[in-house]
Amino acid sequence: MILTGPEITAATQDGRLRITPFAPDQVNPNSYNVRLGPTLLTYTSVVLDAHQPNPTTEFTIGHDGHVLHPGELYLGHTLEEVGSDTYVPLLFGRSSVGRLGLFVEITAPIGDIGFHGQWTLMLTPVRPLRVYAGMKIGQIMFFTSVGPVSPYAGKYQAAAGPQPSRYWRDVTKLRAVAS
């Protein structure tokens, strides 16, 4: 089952959901709008390596915005910290942003129960697009879960700002187990 807007508000008030900062005007009929934070990352290597940390460059979105270019992956983040120990959050781009040709999430819309932090956004435009810090970029829906809960305690917990891939940590763990 999906939480309705009034239930999102109630769950935020009683602590079942944490949305900071919370703004009542960002509540939709069955989702909560999240805004783009001020920081973007891009990878600097031509070839990315899943077994190694990849270097990045950080940009701050200025007052006049920042132009995103096709063929580049930008890691952004939500301005809001969002999480729940009760509900499963799913993040999607807003349709208004999609109609501008911006993909907000490539393959990872599902959040884990127990994650609390800013969400990293995988931004890819189909044509040059100027974005602004604070613009409504996505929406998060919350679903009820069934069964025992094992809260998230992974490598992105308490994320602040965009987070590059840490997949290489999983590979390092597998190598240690295999040896």
UniProtKB/TrEMBL annotation:
Enzyme Commission identifier(s): 3.5.4.13
Top-rank taxon: Bacteria
InterPro entries cross-referenced by the UniProt entry: dCTP_deaminase, dUTPase-like_sf, dUTPase_trimeric
Keywords: Hydrolase, Nucleotide metabolism
Keyword Iron listed: no
GO MF: dCTP deaminase activity
Keyword Hydrolase (UniProt): yes
Record Pfam families: DCD (PF22769)
Matches recorded under PANTHER family: DCTP DEAMINASE (PTHR42680:SF3)
Protein's recorded name: dCTP deaminase
Organism expressing this protein natively: Streptomyces hyaluromycini
